[in-house]
Design goal:
By secondary structure, the protein is α/β, with parallel strands linked by helices. The chain has helices at about 45-55, 65-75, 95-105, 120-125, 135-145; strands at about 20, 25, 30-40, 60-65, 80-85, 85-90, 90, 110-115, 130. The protein contains 5 helices and 9 strands. The longest helix has 13 residues, at about 45-55. Mean pLDDT is about 85; it is low at about 1-35.
Length: about 150
């Protein structure tokens, strides 16, 4: 798997993987039930790495790869934060911010994008924070901490 320049600081760490359960599902044995983040991003490498960084910190992470999938997860779960990619296959991520606020009023929204010019659009539409790609482990964890989310 080629990670390219997106994750300069992630490659050095040893990932923590979810443990398989008897029914084929996965459990995150190192995470707390009340610490849950939803990551909506269509890039598998980013999802894999961010999820494992969060799991190592004791934060559960559910994944969605599109706006449609993100909507389903929002309805079904309870999240402290949503990491939201701006450019998704079925639309612009920041269009979801009002829905996130309506369904999960306490959730903080962190917009992420490789296009730094999206910062103003995302924060103007209600994102609590914007993190530009490429980012590293400390950017993600620092962003969560800045919003009061720690394991």
């Amino acid at each position: 798997m080629s990670l390219g320049p997106v994750f300069a600081g992630f490659v050095e760490m040893q990932p923590t993987f979810a443990e398989p359960c008897a029914n084929g599902a996965h459990k995150e044995s190192h995470s707390r039930p009340n610490m849950s983040v939803l990551l909506i991003d269509d890039e598998p490498e980013i999802c894999f790495l961010v999820r494992n960084v969060l799991l190592r910190e004791g934060i559960q992470c559910q994944l969605a790869h599109s706006i449609a999938e993100g909507r389903k997860k929002l309805e079904a779960g309870n999240f402290l934060a949503v990491l939201l990619d701006i450019h998704l296959p079925d639309g612009m991520g920041y269009q979801m911010i009002p829905e996130i606020r309506a369904v999960q009023p306490g959730a903080r929204v962190i917009a992420i994008s490789a296009v730094d010019q999206e910062r103003e659009n995302a924060t103007g539409r209600g994102a609590d924070l914007f993190i530009a790609k490429p980012f590293d482990r400390s950017s993600i964890l620092g962003g969560l901490r800045a919003l009061g989310i720690t394991a």
